[in-house]
Amino acid sequence: MTKSRTTFKDIKNALKWMGAILSVMLFYGFSMALYGHTLVEWWEPLGIALTAVLVIWFLLRGFWGKVWRGVNPYVALLGHMVVMTGVVLFLILGLNFWFADDTTLHTEEVTVEERLQEKHYHTQRVGRNRYRRGNPYYKYILRVRFDNGRLKEIEVPLKRYNRTRTGGKMTLDLETGLWGYPVITTWF
Question: Is 5 helix (H, G, I), strand (E, B) or coil?
Fold first, then answer.
């Protein structure tokens, strides 16, 4: 029997794939954070992103063929969809947020429809490759209704959550984003 040796090329490929996976996770995470500050239904940017991703697939088929060399074409398409949807969502929501028009800044008074607490648990490591559910922590969410009837859930710190009552009013600063989606600029 011969021993297989790990080469520099194997390590380099592994690091490249780990970096790509981490990047995709960051794109999705930042997209979720930006969605929390954007007044848009979830399916609008997702629909635009999926359409753009399919167009990009047809334009970059040769490139993805090299990246996914020797892989089933359907798996390559799925990989492209997962990676590029995160990137395009980040671009749509990020450009809308960062290039919001400052001249459209206005305040809106919203009504607090509901106060929510979501209970989550930390993960606790108890041994090598062994984890268990750790201590609980809470996320505090206010479901607010705008004058046009739109509902939005906003995550707030505990201090703001305790000061707010159901049926009460609160003011939010809004700007119009690059793509026309309103952006909440109030930071709690």
Answer: coil
CA Rg value for the chain: 22
Report yes or no: 100 and 80 within 8 Å, Cβ to Cβ. Answer: no
Average pLDDT over residues 1-13: 79
176: helix, strand or coil:
strand
**pLDDT band for position 2 (cuts 50, 70, 90):** low
Handedness of CA 99, 105, 110, 116 (dihedral sign): positive
| Residue 143 · residue 110 · CB < 8 Å | no
Reported as type and span, the H/E element at residue 78 is: helix 73-98
Contact 156, 188 (CB under 8 A): yes
Please count the other Cβ atoms lying within 10 Å of the Cβ belonging to residue 61. 13
Q: Which pLDDT score is estimated for 187? A: 80
117, 58 contact by CB (below 8 A): no
